[in-house]
Design a protein that fits this description.
five-stranded mixed β-sheet; single chain; globular; 10 strands; alpha+beta
Length: 167
């Protein structure tokens, strides 16, 4: 599947999930941007309200690994040692770009803080829930979602763990 088709499919699945779940959200169109800080400026919100989502590879043993979507506030970094400990792994690292895009159906820079793959768990830092609304790209670089945090927690049901560190 081409990346354009995969992105369109991810966006469609997101909007379907939001509609079926009765979520309170807004779609925001803006210039294409994949960097969290710049996208936040375009969308007009504080950086800590952005849901920065990164695909992380956790090595469980020399032959076993697991991929997770780590979601942290936009002003924080993913704490790789915390993710390693959370999964009792040997080490955690950022997934290769191609792997992240294949697993999420999104191009790098617009990975959403949710998963449509039951094998790809979503882990969110509790600091993400400090605001009533979070912002993230809608599977595209030129469109974002402003979503009520309570709706996100209900619809996505992420695993919540301290996985963020200061920049």
């Amino acid at each position: 599947m081409s990346s354009a088709l995969a992105t369109a499919d991810s966006r469609t699945r997101l909007l379907d999930l939001l509609a079926r779940g009765g979520a309170r959200y807004r779609l925001l169109n803006h210039a294409p941007q994949g960097r969290t800080d710049l996208a936040s400026a375009l969308r007009g919100h504080r950086l800590d309200q952005a849901a920065k989502s990164l695909v992380i590879r956790v090595a469980l043993s020399s032959k076993r690994r697991r991929y997770v979507i780590a979601v942290v506030p936009g002003d924080r970094r993913v704490d790789l040692p915390a993710l390693t400990a959370l999964y009792a792994g040997r080490e955690a690292s950022f997934a290769a770009r191609e792997v992240a895009e294949q697993l999420t159906g999104c191009v790098s820079g617009c990975i959403m803080p949710l998963s449509f793959d039951p094998e790809l768990e979503v882990v969110a830092d509790p600091a993400l829930f400090a605001h009533e609304e979070i912002f993230f790209n809608a599977g595209r670089l030129d469109e974002s979602v402003a979503l009520r945090t309570a709706c996100y927690r209900t619809l996505v049901a992420p695993r919540v763990a301290a996985i963020a560190s200061a920049p």
